[in-house]
User: Which sequence fits this backbone?
């Protein structure tokens, strides 16, 4: 197996070097081997693990969930019910966030539609709406 530097690992997984160091520090990536001159060196398996972590982060999984998912990936004989439960939790979180974003869009659209009629900031409906939370149906 060909060893690669931290820079090549970062490039292969499309992450930044500090991200790799952080994942090592919190235990998502194992401590790398070192050269005689104390430079980190990585194998191909680390590229796969780092790509797994990156994809999980892109999907919004929290670090603790990723830790559990990595443990399951390291033990393929284990049942996948825990992985499915984590995915269901993440889906619920995403759906809740979508609801919040839809409410945010509705409020911003209402503000923009009320908009300005070319007057001054003192007459601006956007400024008025931001100053008066009571007029915001999403914050009642």
Assistant:
């Amino acid at each position: 197996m060909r060893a690669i530097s931290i820079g090549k690992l970062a490039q292969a997984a499309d992450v930044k070097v500090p991200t790799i160091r952080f994942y090592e520090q919190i235990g998502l990536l194992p401590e790398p081997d070192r050269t005689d001159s104390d430079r980190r060196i990585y194998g191909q398996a680390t590229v796969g693990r780092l790509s797994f972590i990156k994809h999980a982060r892109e999907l919004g999984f929290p670090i603790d969930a990723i830790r559990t998912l990595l443990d399951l990936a390291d033990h393929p004989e284990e049942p996948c019910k825990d992985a499915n439960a984590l995915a269901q939790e993440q889906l619920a979180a995403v759906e809740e966030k979508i609801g919040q974003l839809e409410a945010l869009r509705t409020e911003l659209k209402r503000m923009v539609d009320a908009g300005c009629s070319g007057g001054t900031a003192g007459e601006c409906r956007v400024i008025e709406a931001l100053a008066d939370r009571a007029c915001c149906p999403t914050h009642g």
About this structure: The chain has six helices and two strands.
